[in-house]
Amino acid sequence: MPNLTIPTQFGPLTLCEEDGAIVRVEWEGDGRDETPLLIEAAAQLRAYDDGTLEKFDLPLRVAGSDFQRAVCDQMSAIPFGQTVTYGDIAKALGQSAQAVGSACGGNPIPVIIPCHRVMGAKGLTGFSGKGGVETKVALLRHEGAGGFLI
Prior knowledge:
- The chain has five helices and five strands.
- The chain is of the alpha+beta class.
- Helix 3 packs across helix 4 (97-105).
- The model has no long low-confidence stretch (mean pLDDT 93).
């Protein structure tokens, strides 16, 4: 599977491509493949990292159940710099907040599909990416959504 690793302020992120779509983003790695899609995805990730891109425009494919894909679609619709709760997504999908939380934790394309923008009913919750909650806070602060921390 072609993959390309990009240094970012959130740590090195590896973009993984399969059949013309981004299928995973992983922390760490040393991917050096340069397909047209990986080059474009890297350019967009660099622009996000330097604060000049707020919405990714890439072909994505989320593996998993219909529910997993529906949760990822809901997360993808959260605007840059804003947050929603697991309960908000649960209500939209007619599911439990716990099920939504599990699906968020299983997001295979973090940052691009912004699971970091989803909060618990009482505020900050975990994050499945490297660095856990600290990385989630860094992503939210980068987007100007860190005001809830003060």
